[in-house]
Design a protein that fits this description.
The longest helix has 25 residues. It is built from 15 helices and 23 strands. Helices cover 38% and strands 20% of the residues. By secondary structure, it is α/β, with parallel strands linked by helices. It folds into two domains: 245 residues, Aldehyde Dehydrogenase, Chain A, domain 1; 188 residues, Aldehyde Dehydrogenase, Chain A, domain 2, CATH 3.40.309. The strands form six sheets. Strands 15-16-17-14-13-19-20 form a seven-stranded mixed beta sheet, sandwiched between helices. A six-stranded mixed beta sheet has the order 10-9-8-11-12-22, with helices on both faces. α1 packs across α7 and α3 packs across α4. A hairpin with a 2-residue loop joins β6 and β7.
């Protein structure tokens, strides 16, 4: 399959006004169901806190089980016609979504900065463009996707699975939402999106984009709310044919349990504790630097971040020096300014990450950079310094548990067999990384590492399937393989009559 171009790599949006620059507090007090903005059955609203200022930046209505019922009914009715639309109809709708998304770029940048503290540079150059990239990729795949094939007298048909429930997190809200919505639209499914509880602004704008793009009523529905009030009813609902969930492994287990009674398909993209093997060559310092910067992007709040760095034991001091320089060279501060890292997304995240840092010190790891104190000059907000530990053993909590913050653990290996053993010594298998100039060794390591993606020297491909081994989930997102998650396979025997003898 021909790979689509990536139109967002050279994207240079203008800066949008954000909270603190004269914008009013956002009030999102309706749900989007059956093509209309409707009041929820209960009058319950929560406040959204800007993690950079600790001030309220929005109020969002909270849905309930009865709202899920309304959304599912709308999606089921819409599925009757949307599932049978021609490819050209779905292509036209996706083209409209892409066009409306591009128009809303400044609003999306502002929303990301307010709801999760993403720095303007990160929001404009990566967070917003990669969401657009998911829609553009699904559109490119749809143009050539084979929904039917003949095998002798039998026709194999791939049909949309039905009504999908989407539960997405706050850390990459546009990417993770678009990675579900785009292939679902393309394959003829209808859907209900539960917005991330702590970061609902971008989900609200996605619903507005769908409405403006002319997505037919009931095909896309948005219900704001928390896991108990909306997530559980969505998973348990007999009218939902599939649940696609992105989040922690522990939450994924609960999603699967809640969905089990109705035997619906459950797609999960869960946690990670990804290793980065830095090869013993002349590019070691560069490989270490790239690993630190890759982890710290988005304040470490990335499920496939390379949190465990494995370096040659004989060059540990060199690796520590490079990691310390890289971490301390990153600017942390006001996301409205030119910084590398903003705050982590919430008080709960802030407290959890700091508890892991304290535990790492207590267990005897050597603090190389960062630590518990806020960055210099910062008196409020949930800011954490880029933190690097050395002398980390595989049994330590910081080496085994998903911290989901800007914390790197450096461990050592004596040969590549040991590096593979350490890399695979985890309950997770979402991603693994290899940095170095020896491509033959990197390829060999890739074949032995138990992970859904192995990234050599920071390579990126939005068409590459994304998903994990082991407790990192099941199923795949991104590119053409994502379509499989939203399709049922039907065999029509005798479709082509056998010629008479």
């Amino acid at each position: 399959m021909e790979r689509p171009g990536i139109p967002f790599l050279n994207f240079k949006p203008g800066r949008a006004p954000v909270s603190g620059e004269g914008c009013r507090v956002r009030h999102y007090l309706k749900l989007y169901i059956n093509g209309e903005w409707v009041a929820p059955v209960a009058d319950r609203v929560i406040e959204i806190v800007n993690p950079a200022t600790e001030g309220v930046c929005g109020k969002v209505v909270q849905g309930a089980a009865a709202d899920v019922d309304r959304a599912v009914a709308a999606a089921r009715e819409a599925f009757k016609t949307w599932s049978r639309t021609d490819r050209d109809v779905r292509i036209a709708v996706l083209e409209g979504v892409v066009a409306e998304y591009e128009k809303r770029t400044p609003d999306l940048i502002a929303a990301l900065t307010e709801e999760m503290g993403a720095p303007l540079g990160l929001a404009s150059q990566l967070q917003v463009p990669i969401g657009l990239g998911q829609f553009a990729t699904a559109l490119a795949v749809l143009r050539a996707y084979a929904f039917e094939e003949d095998r002798g007298a039998t026709r194999i048909v791939k049909e949309p699975i039905g009504v999908c429930g989407f539960i997405t997190p706050w850390n990459w809200p546009l990417n993770l939402t678009a990675a579900k919505v785009a292939p679902a639209l393309a394959t003829g499914c209808t859907m209900i999106l539960k917005s991330p509880q702590g970061a609902p602004f971008t989900a609200q704008i996605i619903a507005e984009i769908m409405d403006a793009a002319g997505v037919p009523a009931g095909v896309f529905n948005l219900v704001h709310g928390d896991g108990r009030g909306v997530g559980v009813p969505l998973c348990q609902h007999p009218g939902v044919d599939m649940i696609s969930f992105t989040g922690s492994t522990s939450a994924g287990v609960e999603v699967a349990k809640n969905a089990a009674a109705t035997v619906k398909r459950v797609h999960q993209e869960l946690g990670g504790k990804s290793p980065l093997i830095v090869l013993d060559d002349e590019a070691l310092a560069l490989g270490v630097k790239g690993g630190v910067e890759g982890l710290m992007r988005n304040s470490g709040q990335t499920c496939n971040a390379p949190t465990r760095m494995l370096v040659p034991a004989s060059r540990l001091d060199e690796a520590i020096a490079a990691a310390k320089e890289a971490a301390e060279g990153l600017m942390v501060g006001d996301p409205l300014s030119d910084v590398d890292l903003g705050p982590v997304a919430s008080k709960a995240q802030y407290d959890k990450i700091r508890s892991f840092i304290a535990q790492g010190v207590k267990e005897g790891a050597r603090l190389v950079a960062g630590g518990l104190d806020r960055p210099d000059g910062v008196s409020r907000g949930y800011f954490i310094k880029p933190t690097v530990f050395a002398d980390v053993s595989p049994q330590m909590a910081i080496a085994r548990e998903e911290i989901f913050g800007p914390v790197m653990s450096i461990m050592t290996y004596h040969d590549l067999d040991e590096a593979v053993e350490l890399g695979n010594d985890t309950d997770y298998g979402l991603a693994a990384y290899v940095n170095g100039t020896d491509l033959e060794s990197a390829r060999d390591l890739a074949s032995r590492l138990r992970a859904g993606q192995v990234i050599i020297n920071g390579a990126f491909d939005i068409m590459a399937p994304f998903g994990g081994y082991k407790r990192s989930g099941n199923g795949r997102e991104w590119g053409d393989l994502a379509f499989q998650e939203f399709l049922e396979v039907k065999a029509v025997l005798g479709f082509t009559p056998v010629a008479a003898a």
